[in-house]
Amino acid sequence: MLLALMATIDYLSDVSPKEQAKQAGAALTDLLIASHQLGYDTAVQAGPWCMDTTLRTEMGLAAREFLAAFVHVGHRQEAALR
Predict the structure, then answer these.
(1) pLDDT at 76 over 90
(2) How many other CB atoms are there within 10 angstroms of residue 75's CB atom?
(3) Residue 79: pLDDT band by 50, 70, 90 thresholds?
(4) Confidence of residue 34 (pLDDT cuts 50, 70, 90)
(5) Can you provide one Gene Ontology molecular function annotated for this UniProt record (predicted)?
(6) 69 C-beta neighbours (distance < 10 Å), count
(7) What global pTM score does this model have?
(8) How far apart are CA 46 and CA 4, in angstroms?
(9) Helix or strand run (H / E) with residue 42
(10) Among candidates 44, 17, 19, which has minimal Cα distance to 30?
(11) Which pLDDT score is estimated for 60?
């Protein structure tokens, strides 16, 4: 399964944009911990994939929304580990 972690920065909030971004990171950590507790393996992808303008458009993201990461959730295959 592939999940997309998106977040919105509210510049009018009493919470600073930096703290709001940290909260997205905390949500990602919670997702990873919960997945592992349920017996799933995870892999996180971020970086250029999250900045792709075509992908942002296709996903319908607003200007103040950002794609923080993609999370792959499933069971790893032993052959892939060699």
Answers:
(1) no
(2) 7
(3) low
(4) very high
(5) oxidoreductase activity
(6) 20
(7) 0.80
(8) 10
(9) strand 41-45
(10) 44
(11) 94
